[in-house]
Design goal:
The complex is a heterodimer of chains A (636) and B (235).
Chain A (H helix, E strand, L loop, with lengths): L2 H12 L26 E7 L3 H4 L3 H11 L4 E7 L3 H9 L18 E5 L6 H10 L15 E5 L15 E3 L3 H18 L6 H8 L5 E2 L4 E5 L5 E6 L8 E2 L27 E4 L1 E2 L9 H5 L4 E2 L2 H15 L3 E5 L9 H12 L5 E3 L7 H10 L7 E6 L3 H6 L6 H13 L4 E8 L6 H25 L6 E8 L16 H14 L5 E5 L2 H11 L6 H9 L13 H10 L4 H5 L14 E2 L4 H12 L17 H5 L9 H9 L1
Parallel strand pairs in A: 1-2, 1-3, 3-4, 4-5, 9-19, 10-13, 13-14, 15-16, 16-17, 17-18
Antiparallel strand pairs in A: 5-6, 7-8, 11-12
Chain B lengths: L1 E9 L8 H14 L16 E3 L8 E11 L5 H11 L4 E9 L6 H4 L2 E9 L7 H13 L4 E6 L2 E6 L4 E8 L3 E9 L8 H12 L10 E11 L5 E2 L5
Parallel strand pairs in B: 3-10
Antiparallel strand pairs in B: 1-3, 1-4, 2-3, 5-9, 5-10, 6-7, 8-9, 10-11
The chains are: A alpha/beta (636), B alpha+beta (235).
């Protein structure tokens, strides 16, 4: 369909009938619409979830700005249309289109999916189908776009192998431009056409590029993997992630798109640092984004000013895996608050470490806007916190919340995980005790301070999902019966009008675990689930457990083997050929220490833990010395 | 603190932005334009922006109004120019005027709305005579009851006192209507309610959903006590 006709049809016939038309306009402030030139390399950034989620994603903002500032490339956005829109599109035979140009995805050279969450996988298949692109790579030819994918879930890409032509592993800022440069040269040599087989050979040497068809996986009769080998002479084994060495020098967007409608993170997002060395043993992000690289306060200050000016947002979020850890957090926060208080632009901190320093930061933040406080002790007892290497003590928490209530906060959220390795009901009692202790401290402190507003404590418990590239990758997830029993136990014990308890649907976490540790074989079940209509699985309303179970049954996949089995330390893992820079011996040693209830220090403040990242990727932790703190002073 | 009234229009895809999202669109545009917004006090400071009658999603408009308070005065023409530079596609500020004396809120004084409607005939036929007769019949009535869903349940409302003028013209594939009706808190008449009565008088079954009835609000007005109709910027 020609794009003007498509735009007209969507505008006149579809948008009047959908619930939230502002999702599909494509005319937002700072959107980039480029000339549709034959020579340009065109990429659709496909986010397999609804607009409000996708537009909150920092990676999209970075890559969109990065690609579009290059003359010869363009990037446009596409999200999963909500179900009302999808129905109309299918009825009118309107293919999935990009928001900027209203072009069918088939008109692009590259369609790139971001993999943020396993439960968005059915949306990927559905989006390809809506775009009239064959869902399976083997059924696509050179007339179809190259379908690529990256993001955190790409560290175990195997469940998506039949659907994706090429994965990019690791951080994309440099790799994507390198990849597009190769595509550009390739296109220009072939009158604008792609020859995928030839293109793969030209791309395979880029660090972080994983071409799944170049690898062969052998299985034993019981379904376990016996070996992963290459079946192409140019294939690299393993494929090593790409990394940005100096975060201070790398591109960061100055003009992110400003949505018309409210999105989940509706604010300026500044990435203050990347990576985390705290070493929580369940946390994939803390493992695969190593090492820690901080930006300088001068860079962040400049980026904040540019983004506020170009977007008009009233809030700046200082984002990272652990923002309290940022070396210059205090001076940066105070400087931004001082500068913007008058214009009522606030600053927010998404995650807080459990200590009084963090409460002090949160107190500062209140100068412009009031908010609640969120802490993540993750487990209820010291023993279990040591098992997972979460360096928080009961006393830390008590002191921290005391300081928080004294400072006038009345709402505290506590995040926990249930089903962690070695967990018993004693650990659940620990969660309960902690919740009541926090409430008691809150009542006492607010009473002393003469605050009338009742204290509220929110306890959220997600279920442990073993993730690849973590010390717990060999550990099973609790089976469904046990997970539900644990949830019910907490529910029954946390009945109090000032405590609210949230939990995640256990069935959802179970399916998530299947794909988090899945191999190439589970792809068939994913395909079957898509065929049966599964989509938006991350949305409780749409997740259909029984449909998923039917899909597993029909494809003869036993989901329990993937989610609930303890893997032998010497077994071949489905993602063994994907290298995040971590030594397998390090992960195993951390696993042993966990079982032995031994903690491991943060390598920023103690000795090297020999995880292997720095030597294998020729990099190191880069903490800002705050040398441009002096510069900051001068600027004031 | 200085107050300003703005007249703006909404065209194209921007008509799909909801009234609820409009305040953010203007707040962010004004911040980008470095216009010194005044804020409310308290834990969650809000810019002091208020809008005239809400426009339904899907309707374009040639005359919407808002009022905004600024910390420092700014020449109205400069205000208009700067804001037009930073407003997203589909929004245009046509006029800015300083509010000299503190009167009633915009919402409270606006009481008339003019609409232009293009209604698809969907292949059906009607003559101009039939249409004129139907409109005259409707306007001749003393009472026009419509049903409206309110918080207190289904209610019957007489909209006749809120219809000030109504005319129509049959075209190739559409009928064009022009309406001047009441808007605001006293009586509020929706254009689709009026058209529904016309269609029923014509015995014509046409869809009034947003796809088949393209509604454009031409403007909002204020009637003074002497009956004179003025724009909110003159008030």
């Amino acid at each position: 369909m020609e794009n003007d006709k498509l735009r007209r049809m969507v505008e006149v016939e579809l948008l009047p009938l959908v619930e939230k038309p502002a999702r599909y306009l494509g005319t937002e402030w700072n959107g980039v619409k480029k000339e549709w030139d034959q020579r340009t390399v065109k990429m659709a950034f496909a986010f397999p979830d609804v607009y409000e989620i996708g537009m909150s994603h920092l990676g999209l903002k970075i890559l969109y700005g990065l690609v579009n500032r290059e003359e010869d490339y363009l990037m446009e956005r596409v999200f999963s249309p909500w179900t009302d829109m999808e129905q109309l599109m299918r009825a009118k035979k309107i293919p999935l289109f990009s928001l900027e140009s209203y072009r069918s995805l088939r008109d692009f050279d590259l369609v790139g999916f971001t993999l943020q969450y396993e439960m968005s996988y059915t949306n990927i298949l559905n989006m390809l189908d809506l775009a009239e692109i064959p869902v399976k790579a083997a059924e696509r030819d050179n007339s179809h776009p190259l379908v690529i994918a990256g993001g955190p879930c790409a560290y175990n890409p195997e469940p998506l192998v039949p659907f994706i032509d090429l994965f990019v592993i690791g951080e994309g800022e440099e790799l994507l431009l390198e990849l597009m440069a190769v595509v550009k040269k390739h296109k220009n040599e072939r009158q604008g056409k792609l020859d995928k087989a030839a293109l793969f050979e030209e791309l395979v040497d880029l660090q972080g590029v994983y071409i799944p068809s170049y690898y062969r996986v052998d299985y034993s009769p019981d379904g376990g993997i016996t070996q992963i080998t290459t079946n192409h002479p140019k294939a690299h084994l393993p494929v090593t992630k790409q990394i940005i060495r100096d975060l201070d020098q790398v591109y960061f967007p100055d003009k992110p798109i400003v949505p018309f409608m409210e999105v989940v993170h509706d604010r300026v997002v500044l990435e203050v640092l990347r990576g985390c060395a705290r070493g929580c043993r369940f946390c994939q992000a803390g493992m695969v984004y190593r090492p820690v690289r901080e930006k300088s306060p001068g860079t962040l200050h400049r980026q904040a000013i540019e983004q506020v000016k170009e977007t008009g947002y009233d809030e700046i979020s200082l984002a990272s895996l652990s923002t309290s850890d940022y070396t210059c957090i205090e001076p940066l926060l105070i400087k931004l608050l001082d500068e913007y208080e008058d214009q009522r632009v606030g600053v927010s901190l998404p995650s807080l470490r459990v200590d009084s320093f963090s409460v002090g930061l949160a107190e500062q933040v209140q100068r412009v806007r009031k908010s609640g406080l969120t802490f993540a002790p993750e487990a209820g007892t010291q023993r279990l916190r040591d098992v997972i290497n979460k360096g928080v003590t009961e006393e830390n928490l008590a002191e921290t919340v005391t300081a928080a209530f004294r400072a006038g906060f009345t709402r505290v959220k506590l995040y926990f995980m249930i089903g962690l390795p070695t967990e018993t009901f004693d650990d659940l009692d620990g969660i309960i005790d902690m919740a009541y202790r926090v409430l008691a401290i809150g009542r006492e402190e607010t009473k002393k301070a003469g605050i009338k507003k009742p204290v509220s404590v929110t306890v959220s418990a997600s279920s442990f999902v073993p993730k690849s590239h973590t010390p717990f990758q060999w550990e099973p997830q609790d089976d469904l019966v046990l997970l539900k029993e644990k949830q019910d136990y907490l529910k029954s014990k946390l009945r109090h009008k000032q405590i609210s308890f949230n939990w995640h649907e256990a069935e959802l976490s179970f399916v998530e675990a299947v794909f988090a540790r899945g191999d190439r074989l589970v792809a068939e079940a994913l395909y079957q689930a898509f065929k049966k209509g599964c989509k938006f699985d991350g949305w409780g309303d749409y997740f259909s457990y029984h449909t998923w179970m039917d899909a597993f049954k029909e494809t003869e996949i036993n989901p329990e083997v993937y989610a609930n089995k303890r893997l032998a330390p010497d077994s071949v893992l489905p993602w063994d050929h994907i290298q995040a820079g971590l030594k397998k011996e390090f992960l195993l040693e951390e696993y042993r220490r966990a079982v032995g209830v031994m903690t491991t220090d943060d390598c920023r403040f103690a000795s090297c833990t020999d995880c292997g990242v720095c030597p294998s990727l020729k990099t190191k932790n880069m903490l800002t010395k705050g040398e441009d703190n002096d510069q900051l002073q001068i600027e004031i | 603190m200085t107050s300003y009234r703005l007249k703006y229009s909404i065209t194209g895809l921007a008509r799909y932005i909801s009234h609820l999202d409009l305040a953010k669109v203007f707040e962010r545009s004004m911040r980008r334009a470095e216009i010194p917004l005044a804020f409310s006090e308290g834990f969650n400071p809000h810019p002091k922006l208020s809008f005239g009658s809400a426009l339904a999603v899907g309707l374009s408009s040639g005359g919407e109004y808002m009022e905004v308070q600024l910390k420092e005065p700014i020449p109205p023409e400069l205000f208009r120019e700067r804001l037009n530079h930073t407003l997203p596609h589909g929004f245009t500020v046509d006029k800015v005027s300083e509010v000299k004396e503190k009167g009633k809120a915009l919402m409270a004084i606006i009481n008339r709305a003019a609409y232009q409607v293009e209604l698809s005939l969907e292949g059906k036929e009607v003559t101009n005579e039939e249409l004129t007769k139907a409109i005259n019949n409707i306007l001749a009535k003393n009472e026009l009851k419509v049903h409206r869903q309110t918080k207190k349940g289904l209610r019957e409302i007489d909209i006749r006192p809120g219809i000030y003028s109504l005319s129509g013209q049959v075209g190739q594939e559409t009928i064009s209507f022009h309406l001047l009706v009441a808007t605001g808190s006293e009586i509020n008449v929706r254009p689709d309610e009026v058209l529904k009565l016309v269609l029923s008088e014509l015995n014509l079954n046409l869809s009034l959903n947003a796809k088949h009835a393209i509604i454009h609000r031409e403007g909002l007005y204020v009637t003074k006590s002497d009956g004179q109709i003025i724009t909110p910027l003159e008030g």
